[in-house]
Write a structure and sequence with these properties.
- The protein is mainly α.
- It is about 70% helix and about 0% strand.
- It contains seven helices and two strands; from the N terminus they run E-E-H-H-H-H-H-H-H.
- Helix 2 packs across helix 3, helix 3 runs antiparallel to helix 7 and helix 4 packs antiparallel against helix 6.
- The longest helix has about 45 residues.
- The radius of gyration is 23 Å and the shape is globular.
- The N and C termini lie far apart (about 45 Å).
């Protein structure tokens, strides 16, 4: 667990010293000479782990799958059917399953790093990673919309069908701001903010426990039991949020793809 893996935080006079940003496990240079950070290492590690797992799971391709093959197929099927097919539609979803599959498991594993002792950082609590993913998705669905509908896609995406002409002067600016400014910002910041907030809450709960234990007041020491319960609750809540945020990001990506493919019917 995150904070319980850290050493006692005491100052030179033996008193409790509040944690600083260094204890948060936020990315800092591991090798100053080339600027490699913990964030970079974990991103590369996630790619390696995901690739190794699914390559091994799919290696035999047995008609009667073993446990590992079954786990890999179930994971793939969840994204393929539960996100791609359900959101994009049965006729059009297949070309986009690899993208959705990659996004889901890449985000999921990088989030879960924050719950693993010694790693202790969800890499998407660093806003740069969230911006980069959202930007790639943003460019993808715009290019896809142009490819599918031509340049009239921009009109289709901001002029809703069935709206009276005299309301378009209000509706069109709102649609432009919503689709081309707010959408990519919320897509990235939702992931970043929840990961950073959850990480910091668990960290503070762990250090609250440490603080109470260092006090001489017996009542304060006894109340640390309640903090332990709260800490464990927040830890497992953060795990749930890590999974949900990977799902939400991928679900929204599928929604944006569906909107690009079927802009003329919206």
């Amino acid at each position: 667990m995150l904070a319980l893996t850290l050493a006692a935080n005491t100052s030179e006079d033996g008193k409790f010293a509040p944690p600083g940003i260094g204890e948060a496990g936020l990315p800092g240079p591991w090798f100053a000479w080339d600027g490699i950070t913990k964030y970079h290492v974990l991103v590369v590690l996630s790619v390696v782990l995901i690739a190794v797992f699914f390559v091994i799971a799919a290696r035999k391709g047995s008609l009667v799958p073993g446990k590992l093959q079954y786990a890999g197929e179930a994971a793939y099927g969840f994204v393929r059917n539960g996100i791609g097919k359900d959101i994009i539609g049965g006729r059009d979803y297949k070309p986009y399953v690899p993208l959705l599959f990659t996004l889901f498991f890449f985000i999921l594993l990088n989030n879960i790093f924050g719950a693993i002792p010694f790693l202790e950082i969800p890499t998407f609590s660093h806003v740069g990673g969230a911006y980069a993913l959202a930007a790639m998705v943003y460019i993808f669905w715009i290019v896809l919309g142009i490819k599918k509908n031509g340049w009239k896609y921009f009109k289709l995406s901001v002029v809703p069908s069935g709206v009276p002409w005299y309301l378009l002067v209000m509706v069109v600016p709102i649609e432009i701001i919503s689709n081309y400014i707010v959408r990519p910002m919320t897509h990235s910041l939702r992931l970043f903010a929840t990961m950073l907030a959850g990480h910091m809450i668990v960290l503070l709960a762990g250090y609250s426990l440490e603080f109470l234990v260092t006090l001489e007041n017996p009542l304060a020491k006894a109340s640390s039991v309640l903090v332990v319960v709260g800490y464990l609750g927040m830890y497992f809540l953060e795990l749930l949020i890590m999974v949900l945020q990977a799902y939400v990001f991928t679900l929204l990506t599928a929604t944006y793809i569906e909107g690009s493919l079927h802009a003329d019917s919206h």
